[in-house]
Write a structure and sequence with these properties.
seven-stranded mixed sheet; 11 helices; two-stranded antiparallel sheet; 290 residues; 11 strands
Length: 290
């Protein structure tokens, strides 16, 4: 065990902070050895096989190239569930867990129909259906590879959720679209000018199609999804977005101009404008479509 710890520490110390190394070590020992942090502590003098040491060395070699640990291990935890992830999908963030938690709080004991646009790993609809047992959900994505991951995650988590191809910007939708109580999306919202400010483990490994929007039109996805929601939200339904903190007020203005009401801009745990909820009433349709 001490040899394994030394491999991790020696390889990662030049590149990662102490707390991050501790978190990474926990994940590595759980994945490679099947041991919890307490079990690692209780088995300090256990001899680890050469094969397992080689596996740990391979993981640390990839980490010093800044590949995310979630991609290396092939999984991550999101809202209490284990999800498969690879480079076809974004790694789910804590901010998205906050968005999911908001919806669960709003719809506790109800049976909403849910559409998630840009579903990626399927983390949002899977978490909602698991925690709202009477809910139904489907997820759309432009990436065929992402849809494969989402379907695997639904099966692994014993959730009945449909995942379908859609290209929101080019108005390519599944052949039959119902009306939903909830439309939710964590769309691409990082502007290209912000890319140089981001960490290499994001820009070099996570799918750019799920991250970036042009500086000239940073609200491009919010506009397209709002237009779809006008047609496919039930009366009294809600539209939920995760947003770029820089554009909270602009998204609120956009939704108001299209006839949405009771728009709520919410901060995340770090005090950043990160989530929006907007209500829909079919009677407001004439105010929309602009």
């Amino acid at each position: 065990m001490q040899t394994a710890k030394k491999i991790i520490l020696d390889h990662l110390t030049p590149y990662y902070g102490k707390q991050e190394i501790e978190s990474i070590s926990k994940l590595i020992f759980e994945k490679v050895l099947g041991l919890s942090r307490l079990q690692v502590h209780l088995n300090q003098h256990t001899t680890i096989s050469a094969a397992n040491l080689a596996q740990i060395k391979e993981i640390t070699d990839r980490l010093i190239r800044f590949e995310p640990i979630q991609y290396i291990l092939g999984e991550t935890e999101f809202y209490g569930s284990i999800l498969k992830v690879n480079r076809a999908v974004l790694i789910p963030r804590p901010e998205t867990e906050e968005l999911v938690d908001w919806i669960i709080h709003d719809y506790k004991d109800l049976a909403p129909s849910i559409l998630d646009i840009g579903t990626g790993s399927g983390c949002i609809p899977i978490s909602l259906v698991k925690n709202l047992p009477c809910a139904s959900a489907e997820g759309w994505d432009i990436s065929a590879d992402a849809l494969v991951v989402a379907k695997e995650n639904a099966k692994m988590n014993h959730v009945e959720t449909d995942f379908l191809y859609a290209d929101i910007l080019n108005l390519v939708y599944p052949s039959q679209i119902e009306k939903f109580d909830i439309i939710v999306s964590n769309p691409p919202y990082v502007t290209t000018s912000e890319q140089p400010l981001m960490l290499k483990n994001v820009t070099d490994f996570e799918p750019s199609v799920a991250l970036f929007v042009p500086d000239a039109d940073p609200l491009i996805f919010y506009r397209a999804i709002a237009d779809l929601a006008i047609q496919h939200l039930k009366r009294g339904g809600n539209l939920y977005f995760e947003i770029n903190e820089r554009y909270g007020n602009k998204v609120v203005e956009l939704l108001s101009s299209k006839g949405f009401f009771k728009t709520d801009l919410k901060k995340d745990i770090n005090g950043k404008d990160r989530m929006i909820k907007a209500g829909w009433d079919e009677g407001n349709a004439t105010a929309g479509r602009r």
